[in-house]
Design goal:
The protein is an alpha/beta fold. It has 18 helices and 31 strands. The protein folds into two domains: 399 residues, ANL, N-terminal domain (Rossmann fold, 3-Layer(aba) Sandwich); 124 residues, GMP Synthetase, Chain A, domain 3, CATH 3.30.300. Helix 3 crosses helix 10, helix 4 crosses helix 5 and helix 6 packs across helix 7. The longest helix is centred in the N-terminal third of the chain and has 17 residues. The mean pLDDT is 96. It binds coenzyme A and adenosine monophosphate.
């Protein structure tokens, strides 16, 4: 069937379409209702069904003919080690660790925060939670203690799982002091922590609260899979919102399993037994969906890579992994390819490797610029697919679905709506824009299985943030247009979220941190274009009257403060001290205009600007720190 036929059917008969896809999953009890729409605007998939996500990801393969097939390959150039797990071995590890969690009192519905580097134990911890019906919440290692504490207070975990350290290139980053500090700051306290001691650093343990992973798993009885309701939460993943308080995106068990499994063949054209590699981090949605769950639910082999595209040890790292492990399809962010291209523009490292088994590259996480797309295509000589999605949806909203039909590529566009998604571009009054006209990108409800049903214990914020702009539609937060052929073009965000190396960050959150400094009267953070990372945050601050200290001293403190409060991942390093900020007459800071100035783009003088002369001052300040050239 053509893409068009499949897509049309998915919208005309969503229940029939997804009921068929649900046959790819093993259920203890089939759903009574495929799509429950009795409580709009909340929709629930596979109501009444019971399953276990870990059973579907591991046991059914381990016991069903794939027991000796590799489930997970851990490749770590930063430690010079590799470990391989068959489906049977991974199931057994997970069952033992699930037993260790159960020994600490974790049962169905309890939350477990996982703060881990890119080691197999991160995936083991996630799957172990799924096995006993606990809800995991993985927090990315590049976040600071305060960000971790915010998530502890919201998720209220019974247990936390961590490791002694992460390794960033050649640097060992101790995790345990961050974990201890976060628990100190948080008002909620977990009962216990389970810590994986890595040879590169030894975590100091608090008697009675902290337990050694290996000892705890060794002493535990393997736990069995616990049936959960399709609508029960599998995980919470916090993502940046427009304030400093992150949003707890909830993922259910049933809809998620069905969508993940379906996407592996239809979107990525991967078959059971193939090797699939998502070079991301388990702390992001890409890691949840495409390092851990989808490849395993599909019976494929997944790769967990602890390294970077460059410097571990060279820009040939990706090609080595692809050829050494027989990767068929890879997924990463465009920034990784920009990093490789910068160091090895003629792809000389590629000549060393046999890439004959490699069939496709998928890119997402940020806009894919046509230059990067062209370079990847010319270099790898395989289809390069830009696809668009977000933490909230959990899987692709727009893509060139290689498993259905390879449509013509338009560089700069993530192609067309994935089956199940009815994407519309609306104007401020809720009317559909004509082709080519930019508007808000919305998804008509119901969204397909796998998308967030709500925010963790916050239905009101879910409705307010996503469903209140236009009745019956989900607000993606992106702006763009559809062309005459139905291709989507994602142009920018409509909120203050920026995308730094594929990492989603809130400028509002950074402004809150800057404003907390005693010398700062006012501030703004904008996302300025960056050749490598897509965007980088730039701070503009007005100091309080009477501050006598050197600007550079205050700037150094502000940079350190953002690193300490949000984390190194924010990559906040550029600050300009200005006399005043440009505002509208009603007092709204003109961030959009400042961004245009920073990016050296033409801008229109805002009609409502209070004092146009300020823009010259801003331009000069931005020039001083390397922008607005
Ligand atoms: N734990 C602790 N610190 C971390 C971390 C972690 N898990 N991950 C990143 N950091 C730190 C880095 O060490 C760096 O610190 P620094 O300021 O001291 O150098 C900072 O956070 C920024 O990290 P990163 O964005 O990774 O930048 P980089 O300069 O080290 O590497 C790229 C640049 C492009 C190579 C890198 O961003 C990359 O590989 N991106 C791939 C994209 C990706 O995985 N996106 C996820 C969504 S698909
Ligand atoms: P995250 O939730 O971290 O995955 O970030 C999601 C956001 O990243 C989206 O809302 C977009 O703004 C941006 N994004 C992700 N993929 C793409 C893409 N292929 N093209 C353009 N923007 C993208």
């Amino acid at each position: 069937m053509s893409y068009k036929d499949i897509y049309t059917r998915s919208l005309k008969d969503p229940e029939g379409f997804w009921a068929e896809a649900a046959e790819g999953i093993d259920w203890y009890k089939p759903a009574e209702k495929i799509l429950d729409d009795s409580n709009k605007p909340f929709y629930r998939w596979f109501r009444g069904g019971e399953l276990n996500t870990c059973y579907n990801a591991l046991d059914r393969h381990a016991d069903g003919g794939r027991g000796d097939q590799l489930a997970l390959i851990y490749d770590s150039p930063v430690t010079g080690t590799q470990r391989k797990f068959t489906y049977r071995e991974l199931r057994d590890e997970v069952a033992r660790f699930a037993g260790a969690l159960a020994d600490r009192g974790v049962t169905k519905g309890d939350r477990v925060i996982v703060y881990m580097p890119m080691i197999p134990e991160a995936a083991v911890a996630m799957l172990a939670c799924a096995r006993i019906g606990a809800v995991h919440s993985v927090v990315f290692g590049g976040f600071a203690a305060k960000e971790l504490a915010t998530r502890i207070n919201d998720a209220k975990p019974k247990v936390m799982v961590s490791a002694s350290c992460g390794i960033e290139g050649s640097r060992v980053i101790e995790y345990k002091p961050l974990l201890d500090e976060a628990i100190d700051i948080a008002s909620h306290k977990p009962d216990a922590t389970l810590i994986y001691q890595r040879p590169q650093a030894t975590a100091s343990m608090q008697q009675g609260r902290d337990f050694d992973w290996v000892e705890a798993a060794g002493a535990a009885t393997p736990a069995a899979c616990v049936p959960v309701a399709s609508t029960d939460p599998l995980y919470i993943l916090y993502t940046s919102g427009t304030t400093g308080i992150p949003k707890g995106v909830v993922r259910d068990n049933g809809g998620h399993a069905v969508a993940m499994k379906w996407s592996m063949k239809n979107v990525y054209d991967v078959d059971p037994g193939d090797v699939f590699w998502a070079a991301s981090d388990v702390g992001w949605v890409v890691g949840h969906s495409y390092i851990v769950y989808a490849p395993l639910l599909h019976g494929a082999t997944t790769i967990l890579f602890e390294g970077k595209p460059v410097g571990t040890p060279d820009p040939g790292a990706f090609w080595r992994v692809i050829s050494e492990h027989g990767v068929k399809v890879m997924f990463t962010a465009p920034t990784a390819f920009r990093a490789i291209k910068r160091e090895d523009p003629d792809a000389e490292y590629l000549q060393k490797y046999d890439m004959s088994g490699f069939k496709a590259l998928f890119l997402a996480g940020e806009r894919c610029d046509p230059d990067t797309l062209a370079w990847a295509q010319d270099t790898l000589k395989v289809p390069v697919v830009d696809h668009w999605w977000q933490t909230e949806t959990g899987w692709a909203v727009a893509a060139n679905c290689l498993g259905i039909e390879h449509l013509p590529v338009k560089p700069g566009s993530p192609t067309v709506c994935v089956p199940g998604y009815d994407v519309r571009v609306l104007d401020e009054n809720g009317n559909e824009e004509a082709p080519g006209e930019i508007g808000r990108i919305m998804i008509k409800l119901p969204m397909p299985p796998g998308c967030l049903p709500t925010l963790w214990q916050n239905d009101d914020r879910f409705v307010e943030s996503y469903l209140s702009a236009n009745d019956g539609y989900y607000l993606t937060g992106d702006a763009g247009y559809k062309d005459e052929d139905g291709y989507l073009w994602i142009m920018s965000r409509i909120d203050d979220i920026i995308n730094v190396a594929g990492h989603r960050l809130s400028t509002g959150g950074m402004e809150e941190v800057l404003a907390s400094h005693p010398d700062v009267a006012e501030c703004a953070v904008i996302g300025a274009a960056d050749k490598l990372k897509g965007e980088l945050p730039v701070g503009l601050v007005v100091l309080k009257a009477g501050v006598k200290r050197a600007d550079d001293d205050v700037i150094a403190e502000l940079v350190a403060l953002v690193r300490q409060k949000i984390g190194p991942v924010a990559a906040f390093k550029k600050v300009a001290v200005v006399e005043r900020l440009p505002k509208t007459r009603s007092g709204k800071i003109l961030r959009g205009t400042m961004k245009k100035i920073a990016d050296s783009q033409e801008y229109k003088m805002p009609a409502t600007i209070d004092d146009p002369a300020i823009l010259d001052e801003i331009t000069q300040a931005l020039i001083r720190i390397g922008y607005a050239k």
